[in-house]
TrEMBL record:
Protein name: Acetyltransferase
Binding-site residues, substrate: 7-9, 60
Site (Increases basicity of active site His): 126
Keyword NAD: no
Lineage: Bacteria, Pseudomonadati, Bacteroidota, Flavobacteriia, Flavobacteriales
Pfam families: Hexapep, PglD_N
Entry keyword set: Acyltransferase, Repeat, Transferase
Organism of origin: Christiangramia aestuarii
Length: 203
């Protein structure tokens, strides 16, 4: 397996790979000052076609991860799931997504491409997480929730049942979201309130 991006997020992906006995061959990163990460070699450019390699994009920023995924267009990489994650039957997890330790994904959930389900996050039954979303550590997505493309739900935030969150939204750490949220909104507090909007050109 190859990781794309030698970030802190990549360190966690190395740990996930280790937990399931997967081998990291090397890491790709264009920063020439970096030579290794947790003992794994970093190369600064890829030779040849990488579209058929088992590659996971190890970039935490949702917009950047999407840009790289659009360039690579690699359809074969599977989801990377920590051995201590609890993933229920009847759950769909699309390519390139990562599921971290102690997270719980309950039945009839769908998770799109290149999502991050971070440490100890909970995704309850029948919820839908769209491509490039990030559910941060300890966040709780209750039942029948929809999370739009590229949205980040901050650490420890809670989304109550049936709420629909738009695309490229940011939910602040610790927020409790009680109502539907439009595209690009930034939401903080309890109850969650919109304080501004992300720039739609950045998606
Ligand atoms: C493994 C990992 O590390 S995964 C990473 C997980 N990351 C997170 O959970 C981070 C989530 N991000 C946040 O909570 C951020 O504070 C954001 C995105 C909501 C806001 O960030 P910014 O756009 O920089 O806003 P800024 O810091 O200027 O704050 C704007 C206002 O909102 C308030 N505010 C910001 N974040 C929060 C929050 N989480 N809860 C309550 N109020 C908040 C600020 O106090 C400020 O209020 P004021 O105008 O009265 O002074």
């Amino acid at each position: 397996m190859i990781l794309y991006g030698a970030s802190g997020h990549a360190k966690v992906l190395i740990d996930i790979a280790h937990s399931i006995g997967a081998t990291i061959d090397f890491i790709v990163d264009d920063d020439k000052t970096k030579t290794e990460l947790l003992g794994f070699p970093i190369v600064h450019q890829m030779n040849g076609n990488i579209n058929n390699l088992d590659l996971v994009i190890a970039i935490g920023d949702n917009q950047t991860r999407k840009k790289i995924a659009d360039q690579i267009n690699n359809p074969i990489n599977k989801a990377l799931i920590h051995e201590n994650a609890r993933v229920s039957i009847d759950t769909r997890i699309d390519e390139g997504s990562v599921v971290m330790s102690n997270s719980v994904i309950n039945p009839s959930v769908s998770i799109g491409r290149h999502c991050i389900i971070n440490t100890s996050a909970v995704i309850e039954h029948d919820s839908q997480i769209s491509d490039f979303a990030h559910i941060s550590p300890g966040a709780i997505i209750t039942g029948n929730v929809k999370i739009g493309e590229g949205t980040q739900v901050g650490a420890g935030a809670t989304i109550i049942p049936g709420v629909e969150i738009g695309k490229w939204v940011t939910i602040g750490a610790g927020a409790v979201v009680l109502k539907n949220i439009p595209d690009y909104a930034v939401v903080v507090g309890t109850p969650g309130r919109i304080i501004k909007f992300n720039n739609s050109h950045d998606e």
